[in-house]
Amino acid sequence: VQLVESGGGLVQAGGSLRLTCSFSGVSEDTFTRYTMGWFRQAPGKGREFVGVVDWNGGRALYGNSEKGRLSISRDNELNTAYLQISILKSKDTTVYYCAAGRIWKSGSTWSSGDFDSWGQGTQVTVSS
Prior knowledge:
This protein is mainly beta and 128 residues long. It has one helix at 28-31; strands at residues 2-6, 9-12, 17-24, 35-41, 48-53, 60-62, 70-75, 80-85, 94-101, 117-118, 122-127.
């Protein structure tokens, strides 16, 4: 089981970016048993919940900070989850992580402990 993020890099403020999380080592059926989350972590700070999508992509929840600029989705045929960030700002500069978990709960009170597996992270740098 391996999660690999991609799509990070240097982008201009005001632009948009789509991060990809590929979940390898599992069948499509197994992938659909996982909720897929996104977190971000700035240097010296804890991991901040960005959002999560449920097993079939029908529901997505977002953290309180930037929900209006975010869109999380998934493609179960490709074992892949996505995080789209629009109107990028300097404060979006950080490392983004995807995570896989087994639970779903309503509300935005998710934490890293709700997820079992993690990717290595991808750096996003927004230039002004």
